[in-house]
What we know:
The protein is an alpha+beta fold. The protein has helices at 40-48, 50-53, 69-73, 122-134, 186-189, 220-238, and strands at 15-18, 26-29, 76-86, 91-98, 108-109, 112-114, 141-146, 150-151, 156-165, 178-185, 195-201, 206-213, 216-218.
Amino acid sequence: MAARNVAAGSYAGGLDTRNDHPNAFETTSNFEPPALRPDLALLEAHFASPQGRSPASIRNYHREQPVPERVRKNATPAAVLIPLVERDDALNVLVTRRHHEISYPGHVCYPGGRSDPGDAGPTATALREAHEEINLDPAQVRVLGRLGLYYTQSGYCVTPIVGVVRPPLSLQCAPREVSEVHELPFSALTHAGNYRIWRTDPVRQEAFFAFEHEGVRITGPTVCMTMGFYEALAVTHAKPPPAIERHPTPVFSALGS
């Protein structure tokens, strides 16, 4: 397993693209939510909010052709677990690197996979897959909630499940499935400066985001799910706390009321 890494309102986020000349293709990111240092209180507030209880689907932050409606209708159910580890100083998130002998070799992602017929639902799928891939005991995971659905170009409908994990951990990589496990500071994933336009295709007029931190690069559907989570937390963080209804304090005379 890789060494643990320890490091210290509303808006429209995404891509700005200029294409005012036949040979020009300039794309910049305007994904700029405020930097957060999320703690359990913020996470619990988010998943207790209307937005957290009934999350909207996560959009595709990349500039590419949308997933066709026929693909969405026939998408295979899948789920991933976003495991947040409670450390003394902060929350960290576990990600895995796919083995070089399977599809999408070397990609960094959350543990997860397609649903099995015996799974009771997306949460059961995510917990089962995390146990199979990295030996994460489901009993150690306190599930906080789920994010909105994300549809992939390859035909999956993914439900991200968010859970808190309390150490100690006894993680092991599944042979020929996972090559590494990385533990990243969650605050790094909630800092807009760590997201950038990683790859562009001027011919197809496409551009793709990546998250990068200390040698770990997250791309593809995983970075979109991460950005959607970050954006949702930023909205929750920006909302003022609910007003507390106050009543006048009754005044009693010395003789009683």
